[in-house]
Design goal:
The chain has about 180 residues and is mainly beta. The chain is built from 1 helix and 10 strands. The protein has one helix at about 140-145; strands at about 5-20, 25-35, 35-45, 55-65, 75-85, 95-110, 115-125, 130-135, 150-160, 165-175. The strands form 2 sheets. The chain has a 5-stranded mixed beta barrel. A 5-stranded mixed β-barrel has the order 6-7-8-10-9. β1 and β2 form a beta hairpin. The chain is globular. It starts with a strand and ends with a strand. The mean pLDDT is about 90.
């Protein structure tokens, strides 16, 4: 499965800020709201414009970077950004894939929904390992709960801010 996603968001802070330099390539961030979830968008200097505004469509993938003992910092890595009409509906449905490295527990919440929390890892587009938090619910959670770790998983979901991190709420798993 290709982990490229196309999502539409409203620019909150469109002035690029230097985030990091990797192998002499500079990466900048802007802040965009994707259907109720604010997330930084990471842009290479080769795709960078002076400023972003209004509504944009971003093609790329979700990634994170982290240091041991700290929470991951999440980004949407942009391969392409283009302006779209202001009446284009915002979206944050993404594709994900990776290796499940940790089963964080199968539980039932107060609404009697089965929930399985997983940690996925994959290589990030800017080098290093990217960690994603995934929450599967109901039939998908029951389907995945007894699989021995590690295993590969891919599917669709949407981003949801949870405290200082983001998780992907699974809507569909690819077989």
């Amino acid at each position: 499965m290709n982990k490229q996603s196309v999502i539409v968001g409203a620019v909150i802070d469109g002035t690029p800020k230097l985030n990091r330099t990797v192998r002499n390539e500079k990466f900048y961030t802007i802040v965009v709201e994707f259907k109720g979830t604010e997330i930084p968008v990471l842009i290479s200097e080769y795709n960078l414009r002076e400023e972003y505004s209004d509504t944009i469509q971003v093609t790329g993938c979700v990634m994170s970077d982290f240091k041991k003992g700290e929470l991951p910092k999440f980004y949407f890595y942009a391969n392409a950004i283009e302006n779209v009409d202001a009446d284009t509906p915002l979206s944050n449905e993404i594709y994900f894939c990776g290796k499940v490295t940790k089963n964080r527990g199968f539980t039932t919440n107060a609404r009697c929904r089965d929930i399985l929390a997983l940690t996925l890892s994959d290589m990030s587009p800017v080098g290093g390992v990217s960690v994603l938090y995934v929450s599967a619910r109901d039939a998908v959670a029951r389907k995945l709960k007894d699989r021995p770790v590690p295993y590969e998983v891919a599917g669709r979901g949407y981003l949801k801010a949870y405290r200082d991190v983001y998780e992907i709420i699974v809507t569909e798993i690819e077989e």
